[in-house]
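Question (not urgent): is this output format expected?
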Amino acid sequence: MFSAYPRPIILAHRGASAYAPENTLPAFELAIEHGADGIELDAKLSADGEVVVIHDEGVERTTDGQGRVSSLTLQQLQALDAGVTHSTEFHGLRIPTLLEVFEALGKRAIINIELTNYSTPYDPLVEKVCSLIKKHAIQDQILFSSFLARNLTKAARLLPDVPRGLLALPGWMGIWPRSFGFMFGDFQALHTHISDVDPQQVQRVHRIKRNIHVWTVNAIDDLQRLKEWEVDGIFTDDPRTAVATLRRPV
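Got this back:
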C-alpha cells in the first residue's frame, strides 16, 4: 500500500490542523507545504446530498453556526464561517465539498477519506464518494477508513482496488476491531489509537501482511517510538514536526 513512500507515511489529520482550521482547504494545502505525504479528512452528506468535508455531526464546534450537518443544505453550510476557531487571517473560510478538495489537491497527495455517516449509516455517502473518485480517476491515491465495517465492505464492492483501513476506538470499546474484526475482515490496514499500540500489536498486524496506521501522533517522543516499532503510517495534527522528526527538515 503506497509502496513508493518512505515509512511511516505521514498523513495530516484533518489537514495541518495545528496551524489552520481543520478540514479546510488552507489546512490541506499547508499540510502539503509542510511535507506530509497526504491528508486525512472526514466526509458526510449535507441535507441535499452533497459530500461535504467536516468532522462533527453538528457545526457548532468548528463554525459560527448551529445545527446538524445532515439537516443543512450545502448552501446553508457554506454560508457559515469555518475559520472562526483560528486567527483572523482564516475568517471567512467555507466548509469545502469533497469535489473542491479533489480539484484543489489534484494528484499531489494521498487522501485518506474517513466515511463518517455514523448517525445516518444507510445513506448513500459511500456511493457518492466512490462516484467522485471515479470521475477524477484518483483511485491510486485514496485510502478509505471508517469505524463502520459496513462502509468499507460497500466501498470494496464499488472500488475494489482502493485500500481500506478499519478504525478502532481507544480502550475496551475498540477491542473487537483491533482483534477479531480486523484479523478476519477484508481490510488492508488497522487504524488504531496511539494509546493502544505496542510492538506486539504491530507484529501481529504485519504477520498477516497488513498495515498499521496510528492516530493521532503529535509528540516527538511518540513519533520516534512508533518509527522504531515500524508502524506503517501516522496521523498527525502537526505534519511539520512529524516530517522534521521522522524524515527530513522542511
